[in-house]
């Protein structure tokens, strides 16, 4: 009872403060050409401590058939929610496994009652803004200072289960050639300043930022480049592109990071080495399989990928397995230069893509690939954009951008970024 009374009185106080601010915004507003004043209109606003009524001016532009509330824009209201509550709603809606759980969490931890459907609407509304913010072009002068000697850029794709309507005409790996998922690309940028006492690379603390997209690789590549430029790629000592052996990602790298050192993730290289041995020996259950796979790992770490290719061809020459072995060796033929792991280790580089693999599991998998989930493209893309921004610790930058958007509707000066 005491808590409820405190919340009620606090909400009333907040309402009085915001009403005063709204009156000042309305008094200072200069209507744009074509706008007609239609009177004062009330709205129920919900904040962190409860709801209150706000009275503000309403203008209507008959030519554009568009209405405008200067006070709503000036205060940064999001469909009747204060910026602070909208920020919390978005955080919970994107972070929790479902909108129902987000509803319960808000109520149990803060006594804030917001329906799950409303949480979904706010998340999708601001998720669209978040995706546009991720896709913004880099502009000179926006780069952060980067003093790290090595900057890594990494990317990977993972499938998100989609509704049937989203998959019409899309080819996949099902027996009938159809698909159950749609690929989302996840990219990250991080830096390395030092190695440990054993010479192993150490990722700089809190240096990783993420971006995501469900568009084609041709559109995702420039997005990732702009993110690297914002992170200070132009002043970094060495740029390393750490990806798997997919030809699409390799081509993306040549187009957008042409001076970078490309490295094929060691895990994927060893995985494909297993495919070669399986073709040579006939089965993973062969008693020599594990021993020889360990030998492949040691040879790869000594820059002997070309020797492994030659030895495999000699071993299968004239045997029935020759065609199957040759097919698996194509992966290595295409990536010899990007598999010089001995040299890469000597230079202190990461050779594993654990950062982006972990991102695919935590940012994408833990929210969008749970049992029973089937997404629409906008829904998944908007959720992932918000999760990337939060995981990148850029939530404050995003909300400044959003408040600037509101402020510009009143022709105000933008907030300092």
Keywords:
single chain, 417 residues, alpha+beta, Nucleotidyltransferase, domain 5, 3 domains, six-stranded mixed beta sheet, three-stranded antiparallel beta sheet, 9 strands, 49% helix, 18% strand
Please compute the radius of gyration using only Cα atoms: 27 Å
Please estimate the helix content. 40-55%
Helix and strand content put the structural class at alpha+beta
Say what oligomer this is: single chain
* Major sheet characteristics: 6 strands, mixed
Strand content: 15-25%
The geometry reads as: elongated
Number of helices: 15
The succession of helices and strands, N to C, reads: HEEEHHHHEEEEHEHEHHHHHHHH
The residue ranges in which pLDDT falls below 50 over 5 or more consecutive positions are: none
What is the topological layout?
Blueprint: H1 2-28, E1 35-47, E2 50-61, E3 66-68, H2 70-75, H3 83-95, H4 99-110, H5 116-134, E4 150-161, E5 181-195, E6 201-203, E7 209-213, H6 217-230, E8 238-243, H7 247-256, E9 261-264, H8 266-281, H9 289-300, H10 305-316, H11 322-333, H12 341-346, H13 354-368, H14 377-391, H15 395-408
What do you see in this structure?
This protein has three domains: 2-135 and 395-405, no CATH class; 150-265 and 352-374, Nucleotidyltransferase, domain 5; 268-339, no CATH class. It is built from 15 helices and nine strands. It has helices spanning 2-28, 70-75, 83-95, 99-110, 116-134, 217-230, 247-256, 266-281, 289-300, 305-316, 322-333, 341-346, 354-368, 377-391, 395-408, and strands at residues 35-47, 50-61, 66-68, 150-161, 181-195, 201-203, 209-213, 238-243, 261-264. The protein is elongated.
